Amino acid sequence: MKKLLISALAAAALFTVTANAEEGVYLRQLPQYSYINCRLLTQESYPEVCIFPGYPSSLFSSYSDTQPYFLCFPGPDGALADTFSSYEATYLDDQNNIQYGYSVTGSDSFEEFVNEAEDDSWILLDGSDGTAARIDPDGQRAYGMIATKEFGKSSKLIISIRLDSLDSKMPLETRVQALSDAILAEVSRVSGSMHYETIEPYWSAGKYKGIKILDDSFQHLLTLDLPVFTVNYTEGGSADAPIYITDADRGRVEGFVDFGNDANIEVEIDYDDYSYAVSNFEDGTEGASEQTLDNGSKWILYISNKHDDGTAYAWYASKNLGFQNEYGDDVYLTVYMSADQIYWADEADIMSDVAKFDNYTIVDPAEDPYVPGEAPAAEAPAEEAPAEEAAPAADGTWTCPDCGQENAGNFCANCGAAKPAPAEWTCPDCGQVNTGNFCANCGKARP
Question: Under a CB-based contact definition with an 8 Å cutoff, are residues 270 and 213 in contact?
């Protein structure tokens, strides 16, 4: 039976969903015992800060005919991505105990920014040249501001740096010098490398095959594949629709499955000791029930919203993972899906989606083969594939290096693999021929 119906705004279409079970680059999340309990994404998964000045949902609206406009610049050297969303990002350098933060503001002025300094001597740049910087030696923090007029007359990029290696007992001049050096260097680096690009959201299931998340006690590492979605229309034709990840923050990953014409699904994946579905089931709330998949896997389903005809458009599903955290609380994997212009016919229809998130593994973190600083081994097959097989043809089509399917879009219509980037590319600014993600001569990101 076909699974979901798209309403009249989406041409009354049917689609089915298939998962790409291949191993690939993961959004890897690792504990930091040294100075902050965070889970990190590797630099390989998010090498460039890419900020869109708006909320994630606006990335998938039909209000604009243009693709999202992003401010982009390389991440700081030696730091790994901690959290990111469409409008902000943080990085951690755990070797030097430094945290970097980046966000876009549309209202703050340079005058307001520098006036927040508690001492005039702590104002390093006043904004007269489009950049400002100030420090807070008592708080071990420094701040920068860079004009980003391409986003609007008042738009600014805000940079924050926290130096946890400093201590309030250190001499004031030591703290002032360290913070001043750090923020001036970062403002100079970012202002000299940032550029603006009109691109699709690039943190997608086509690039990252899954997620890795640690529980709060750092004892269990959960890996979960992210399915690639395909929509099949009743009048013929189909379209790829991967999960675009819009927010990765510690134990939660959020994203959208977008089919165009405002037909999309909001997705959230949680790895936590609290479950909204279980809470409603235990309270006997209408719409909450225990469900069993064909493989015997048991889930608690809570249908939170229905149309008048009884079809569902929002639900939560949670599975008890069989272990407890350090406080004795059960830990759950929870999936939340909420659709716009799409609906699920009944509980069986919903559970066919839940089954796609049942393909997970839980291991001891010590068994994770990933070694910080090394590229994941799963990237090797893509590198070994003959360049001529994956290269786009003159008419824009390309051959999938995994299954041999001929394609025209950004994802393989057969197996869901992402369209591979060219093995070599020529920098449009300086003409340097490169193979990596950044120009070896001038530092510009791969177009």
Answer: no
The CATH code belonging to domain 46-198 is 3.40.1000
Handedness of CA 38, 44, 47, 49 (dihedral sign): negative
Q: Six-digit token pair at 407?
A: 């394609």
Q: CB–CB of 293/356 below 8 Å?
A: no
302 close to 285: Cβ distance less than 8 angstroms: yes
Phi and psi angles of residue 358, each rounded to the nearest 5 degrees, phi first: -90, -5
Place of tokens 């701040």: 143
Bridge partners, residue 156, by sequence: 105, 147
CA dist., res. 146 & res. 132, Å (int): 7
CA dihedral for 198, 200, 201, 206, sign (positive or negative): negative
Q: Name the pLDDT band for 372 (thresholds 50, 70, 90).
A: very low
Whether the predicted pLDDT of 220 surpasses 60: yes
What six digits make up the tokens of 424? 């070599």
Alpha carbon 250 to its chain centroid, in Å, reads 11
Segment 173-215, tens digit of pLDDT = 999 999 999 999 999 999 999 988 876 554 554 455 567 777 7
Q: In angstroms, how far is CA 372 from the centroid of its own chain?
A: 19
- The pLDDT of residue 361 is above 80: yes
DSSP 199-265: -----BTTT--EEEEE-TTS--EEEEEPPEEEEE-TTS-EEEEEEEEEEEETTEEEEEEE-STT-EE
pLDDT-derived band at 441 (thresholds 50, 70, 90) equals low
* Mean per-residue pLDDT, 61-76: 72
The amino acid at residue 313 is Y
Q: How far is 387 from 401, CA to CA, in rounded Å?
A: 9
pLDDT at 5: 40
Mean pLDDT of 75-102: 83
Q: Which tokens hold the place of 385? A: 């594939």
Query: Where are the chain's structural domains?
Result: 4-26+203-367, 46-198, 387-447
| CA dist., res. 284 & res. 340, Å (int) | 27
